[in-house]
């Protein structure tokens, strides 16, 4: 016999009011709500508790590639906290910059070498980062807290298993006692990376995009919701109702969990915070992370977000693409989406 309790928590979730659910009826109300909602998310995620520090960005290596240079950089994001990242420097800059936070299963190399996309005139797919760099974008691929070169000693090592691992559980367990969370730390770091991006002379002000798959989509969603410098965002495999996908599926990685989240807002409300800026949501029809109700649990959230775009008559800025696969990157139309909205 088992006396488990996740279903009881689901009922509790159903009976809990989300204090910052989107319900504005005018663009002015939306903006007022967005500001209050952002303050609340900054509070509960602990972003507000991160400590500013001089970034001291330094380039350690540069490697010439076809159409761009691949540079290895370090950036201080808090006292004693160092974030390594790759910067792809285009030979012919177009004025835009794109951040690609990675998901679970590796570090920044997955952002540079993975997320393949088709390109016109080529038979084989190429990594999105390289494609964007050849288009002229600066591309920034950081290690997230607890991943890649930022793994704690419990997960450090060169074996395939170790490299795919992360220290999110350990970091959450430490952070929560400070009123912080892994996503709060990760988003703070991405905000510092945007600060850095704005110092690149060839980058036009405001021409900043962010693209991520899975855990990278998670970071992209939070960053775009909280930082209006993100003009175009792509979240793949991470946009669904929290009840089915995070409460009921409580075996997801610890980084998905933020104190007071269930009484604050759902994911569609976070999408509404991004309006009227460009947002592309990519979903896999067979993605198990959509929850037991499948795409219905995604559509309910995209409909919430769409209502916010409608207040600005900018419904076409929110794109929802569904592919036939599972929890995988598809990438169709992402390059065009970024060029259209950032160039
Ligand atoms: Zn995680």
For the biggest β-sheet, the strand order reads 1-2-3-7-4-8-9-10-11
Tell me the CATH topology.
Rossmann fold
What is the CATH top level name?
A: Alpha Beta
Structural class: alpha/beta
Low-confidence stretches: none
Total beta strands = 11
Verbal overview:
- The protein is an alpha/beta fold.
- It has a single domain, classed as Rossmann fold.
- 35% of the residues lie in helices and 20% in strands.
- The chain has twelve helices and eleven strands.
- It has helices at 6-14, 27-44, 108-113, 128-135, 160-164, 168-175, 182-197, 215-226, 242-247, 267-274, 296-311, 334-342, and strands at residues 58-65, 68-78, 81-90, 97-99, 116-117, 126-127, 138-142, 208-213, 230-236, 278-284, 318-323.
- The strands form two sheets. It has a nine-stranded mixed β-sheet with strand order 1-2-3-7-4-8-9-10-11, sandwiched between helices.
- β1 (58-65) and β2 (68-78) form a beta hairpin.
- α10 runs parallel beside α11.
- It is globular, with a radius of gyration of 19 Å.
- The termini are far apart.
- The mean pLDDT is 97.
- Residues 104, 166, 168, 215, 253, 255 line the site of zinc ion.
- Residues 104, 166, 168, 215, 253, 255 line the site of zinc ion (ZN).
Helix-strand layout with pairing:
Layout: H1 6-14, H2 27-44, E1 58-65, E2 68-78, E3 81-90, E4 97-99, H3 108-113, E5 116-117, E6 126-127, H4 128-135, E7 138-142, H5 160-164, H6 168-175, H7 182-197, E8 208-213, H8 215-226, E9 230-236, H9 242-247, H10 267-274, E10 278-284, H11 296-311, E11 318-323, H12 334-342
Parallel strand pairs: 4-7, 4-8, 8-9, 9-10, 10-11
Antiparallel strand pairs: 1-2, 2-3, 3-7, 5-6
Helix pairs in contact: 7-8, 8-10, 10-11
Zinc ion binds next to loops.
